[in-house]
Amino acid sequence: MKGVIEFAHELLKEILLEGDLAVDGTLGNGHDTLFLAKAVSPSGKVYGFDIQETAIKRTRERLDATGKSDDSVTLIHASHHRLSDYVPPHGIKAAIFNLGYLPRGNKKIVTKHETTIAALTALQPRMEIRGRIAVVVYPGHPEGKDEADVLIPYFKNIDQTKWDVTKYEMLNQVNDPPFLIVMEKRQGS
Fold it and tell me: The domain 4-185 belongs to what CATH superfamily?
């Protein structure tokens, strides 16, 4: 069975083509950014966001090591809620948000539901029809649980005539394992 990140990548890979536009809302260590860059290169574009310089540095190093550090990837040292300042007003095919804290980083710096919801709200009108947004949520730490408790009602209230929203989770795991929410923009929305 696939883990949530592997499954998120699989669902995004189904729709991504060379030349597409994509967003990584939380750079972390650069794994998602690299995945997106490989999927849309050489003519596509990835916009990656993080508030931590460490995440920018680690992502740049990962991209450099794999030959994907070129004009097709823009790393932005800003919160994902400011994405409307940086990404085009339309044409985004895929986005991923891997919430929580930076692995091997300061665990006191975590994503917050306010900025996550602001980013998702700003991203929705920019998405192409059949475009997908994958959000990996980590309720296994107190701040992550608080974020999950607000995000679930947010996702449940997204207009069903415009978006399909799905939750993928392991039901028999202890310690509140991460889960995946995937949104797909519907035809005619």
Answer: Vaccinia Virus protein VP39 (3.40.50.150)
Q: What is the pLDDT of residues 152-163, one digit of tens each?
A: 999 999 999 999
**9 Cβ partners below 8 Å, 6+ apart?**
32, 35
79 touches 49 (CB < 8 A): yes
- Largest Cα separation within the chain, whole Å, is 43
Structure tokens at 60: 């740049």
* Residue with tokens 């916009």, as numbered in its chain: 47
- The domain spans of the chain are 4-185
pLDDT interval class at 102 (50, 70, 90): low
Rounded to whole angstroms, the Cα distance separating 141 from 6 reads 21
CA distance 68 to 37: 7
